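Input.
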Amino acid sequence: MAEHPAEKDFLKDLMSGRTDAAKRTDRHNNMIRVFISSTFTDMSVERKALLEKAYPQVLAFCRGLGLVFEALLGNKYGHRSLPHHIPEKIFESFLSRVNKNPEGLKLLSQWYLKDSNQVPPTYLLQPITAKFPHYSDITPENGPIREKEIASWRLTENQLLSLLRSVATDAEKAGDITAQQKQLFYSSVLEREMDAGLFSADSDQNALLFVREIPRHRVRDGPKRFTRFRELTADGLMDAETQGQLTELKKRLYARLSKGVVDPTRREHAQYLVVHHVSMSSDLCRGLFGREGILGKICLSMWESTSVYHPPVVVHGIAGIGKTALLCKLAQEMSNVLGNGAVLVIRLLGASHSRPDIHSVLRSISAQVCVACGLATPPPMTANNHQELRRFFRNVLEEVSQQCKRTLTPDQRDIVLKRFEHTGSPLHLKLMLGEATKWPSYIPPGEVTSHLGADTREVMSQILSKMEDRHGKELVSGALGYLTLAREGLLECELRDLLSLDDDVISEAYRVSPPPCPSLLRLPPLHWAQLRMDMGGLLEEKWTNGVAYISFNNRRVCELVSSRYMTSHRRGRSLKILSEYFLGRWAGKLKPISLPGLTLLLSDRKVPPMPLWLAPGLANVRKLQELPSHLLNAGMWDELKTEVIGNAEWLFCQSRVLGVSSVMSELDRCSRHMDCSETALIGHTLDLIKPSMDFLDGHMDMCLFYTELLARLSSLAKPCPAVIGRLVSQCESFLLTCEEPALIPKCSFLEQPGGALKHTLTTGLQGGVVCMDVSSELLVAGSDDGVVSVWSLSDHQLIHSLIGHTGAVLSVKVIDRCRCVSVSSDGSVRHWSLITGQQLLCFHDAVPIGSSPSPSHLHLSHQLMFVYTGTQVKVWSVAGDDLLYSSTSHSDKGDDAFKVLGILQDSVVSLSASGLLRMSHPVNSTQTVETQLNNFTMVSMSGKHTAVEFPLIPSLLSVSEDEKILIADSVNRFLDLTHGDRVLCVCVSADCRLLVTGAADQLIRIWSVTTGSLLDSLCGSDAPVTSLVLHNDVTILSASTAVCGVHVWSLKYDARHKPTARIPTGCVHMALTRDTDRVYYAQRQGQRELIVWNNNTGCVHMALTWDTDRVYYAQRQGQRELIVWNNNTGCVSERLETSAAVSCLQLVQTKRLLLCGLQSGTVLIYPLSLPQETLCIPPPPSLSSVLALSVSNQEKHMAVAYEDSVALFEITSRDSFPTVDGPVKVLSLSLLHGPLSALALLPDKRLIYGTLCGAVKLHDFSRQDASSDLECHSSAISCVTAGNWGKHALIGSSDAVQRLWNLDPPTLEHTMEHKGFFFEGVLCAAFSESDQFVFTGSQDKTVKVWDVSTGNLLCVQYLYSPVVRMVTNRNGFVALSQHGDIIREVFRCPDKMASDYNPLKNYRSQYTVTSYKGKNQEVTRSSVDQLKDFNPAQINMSVLSMLTAAKSSNTCVLL
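Output.
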């Protein structure tokens, strides 16, 4: 196969010494498995060097090479072990030969047994432990036995090897086995590995072999020096047999791998040969400044002597003066001075630990020069002979030297050098030499001087003036101007199109003669070709993804062009042309122009169209890169809003192709220059979507992207109609017409933009966040998986992941902005550098191993570092020196032990059980204060104390940094800050004016310290807030041990965009009206009040109305009040007290009744129109609590499930007032019956119910003893939902199984199983109005849509929170999430779907459907599996690293 041209260009550039070529390596998304085959004792240094130094570069370098085998071969043949298996024929022939040796026959029969299951049969070597059971026993008590058995095995192994080799030799002589079969008993493990990796028929040809040859022994080295590099016999002599085997192996390897010589014509070998030296040279000269004079003189001398023989240039000086850096800088400049035809050879002879000999250096240089110049490489015989190689190298230099045929006269050289001495700039020299190459020798010195500018800018101006005279000013200024304004450079075809659209350029081109075809105007190709040739010294081509971009090769050229040509008028006109070009405005259209001597023309400029998608799935990357910037700079803001900011397809395309960060950056630039607040809101929306897109690697489906936009922006469509309203309309239109099933959000139920929540930091975290600290612009967080993550708060990028702890990180503190200290439950304290990310110090056994996050603390003072628990204190200096102090809790008097309370300044505060408070300095033990306490007391350093009264025992205590404010949960001192749930963390601002608290209800509250008023409440956390940090009194950082993420909040945000309030977290019972204007809930365990209020987070049981105007909920188990939330006004409308704790809620939607079951067994019925007119169903005689409620679809009957029975009631009305009669029927439950967990009442008085044991039963109240068992589940029944027409029912369990039943007669139609990684189980379900589809809310935080007729999964939508209550509504459903969000969606399913449609294409999960025909007759079983690199249900799980490494699979895999 012919080599690709790009590959040849790369190889040539690389071998010519260009540093950019060394970095231009193809990267493929292939997994590379590198297998290292070597002996161990003599290759330990090499293996260590590979792992520590080589492989960090190998990982970045070899990804596109397909490297699969690597061998390290020294002077050891390796261990020769017994063969694990021997073919039957060979072994039995061996047995026949040892018949006369009973001892040998017994030994073989004892250790090799025949395995007849193998085809053909084989004799297998028995495990060592079968005969020596203590061989692998490492217990101390069996140590002597183990040593004895190890010695016995070694003796046995040697006997077996000797016997087998002797017999194999005889068998080969007799012709019973071949020489290759005999080698099985002589070969080492190393050779066997190479046989499998290199010499097998299906082995990969791409392998590397490193051979190390030890030089001749010197007498003074002694034989002991090389004992570990060669095999020796038992008497210490060289093992001739193994050395012979090693020699034969090397012969085979050399023949296989081109005699082991690096082949410079191969890309990977060339890079290995050159890239190390080129890269190191680039690094060494990166920080070199000055010495322009000597650099210029050397450059000029070398340039002039390129065509003649010349002596070497030697740079000498004392050690450390910078000779190497100067030569590396010279190499970098010479690559520009000598041009593309030069071959630059760089060899840093001191770059490696072992200095190479001259022969190897000369051989590698010869190979590089030959490849770079297209010459034949030296043959092996020449390469291995020093004299021949010298002669070959001299011939190569002669041939190469003839390629340059230009020089300067002495006078011309002096003129150039004199001009250069004034500036010392290599760029100045390069430009002058570029002009000097055109000078003939006879040109007068005066004319030469006029052609050279005094500095770089003047020379470039002279070059531009010459081009203007030769090609025209408009053409030159236009071409260079467009290159200046382009963001990523321009393709040559784009630049020609732009010049053809420029009327001034076209007018100048046809100034002398009219165009040959006035209706078609383009820049004549010859004009551009001539200009491109003259501009070669100012431009360069950059190859990206196989495309060459033209751009300036130096920043100074760009600056000169901008100042020379880019006037305000010219800049504005050029930006407009660029914008119109990438908009595709003139594609296929006639553009007017006035040419000299002609009337107004309408001509076609033949520019291509600029669609967003060039083909299905192929985006127009150039348009994405260039258009937004040009529209913004040209002031075409209306087009910018229409085509970019307010274009949903553009946002999706750019996010997918260039990354969501690219879109956010563009929108941020636009919001800073434009007066459009909607732009910032859209940018914030994409920031909220970014974690999902990052986990998908940018491959988010368009439907999913549009759904996310709708679910976040719908509520902003009316207040922001110009841009966001257009976006929402586009998303809705697409979802209503797309060819795939889609759930279309009808309200905003995901986190909305513009609020206080700005970012969520998840990169680098795989566990819950335990602790945080902030210094300057760095955030340091410790997680429960032992990782310390460091982020930059300026750009929210992960800087370091500090890995070293093996247990949860309990505390982190930042020292001096450049170091941090972390304490872990593994008992260690580690110091880290925040600059390099390296570990500086580590102290083990600092805290008891296995400490939970609460008892271990870290305290830093100005000079000391304290690590303490309740029973011990250890002190180090802040610099991390030796341990200064260590103590454990002990008793001075009797058993009165002290408990460490904390650190006050530099003193340890401890308290005894008798109330004795001690404050002691750990270093100076004489500074001790003791005080006897009786109550909760505040004590000063001098021992003075003041009693503080606590109405309740405090569960949280915290002190401000200046120790002026004490914060205590349940303290009623000068401020009483009431929370809705337990306070878990608190922090105070630096000026002590703000107090920030985090609670178990997932809310962050900001209080005024001076007035005690609640200033703000931030909702959006997805777990209880356990850590808080207030940064710069403006930014709040919050985290939780339950999720892996850090939320970044800003106290400065537009209150108009504050997210809508939601019902409190942890509500145990909730209900929602269908019009979503009211929410009813009971908030706490034992609460006797029913409240009408908002939607917050964490609800467990809920009920909702069809129109979703109200939600009814109880927040906690046992709560004795029911809360009603008005969703229209966003506030609590009522509180309805109950006589006992609320146990369940159910809404009768049409008749507008709220059913409230109590733990006392009472059922309260609230007419929603008259909530104070409460009806009551008394408890049963057994006083059992109410477990569940169900109402038939026609709302004529209701079922009440108690612990021991289920009662049927009739819902009627008298005098237009609702009434409940009954119980009409009662179903008694057996004592052995499992607790009832879910039920559904059918219109014909049949009842389906499930239990916590997984049993499912169908009972007919209209017939006595008419109960039947349906197929049971293996886990608790979590959901029983009947269809709207009473013909179907869905039964879901807490595992992955859900079953769809046909109820007339009861027949199982489909068994659907959906599995992710962890979260499984159906929480709620609702049928569509026609019973064609069924919607399910699952524990994996998704809503799924299933086809009732086929059981197939149609659509999956991730909602970031489990949906716990659903109600059918029009063409979709309304629902309540566990976070308290009200969800309203419409489902659309096209009549026809593509045959390859996969509903799981965005999710890492799989589902299986088993359909039945008749009773228990399986007819089909289908499965769909999608194992992509994203599982939104696991977006915060610790197994993220496992998910991102997974690959797609076409098979159905149970997870």
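The longest helix spans residues 143-173.
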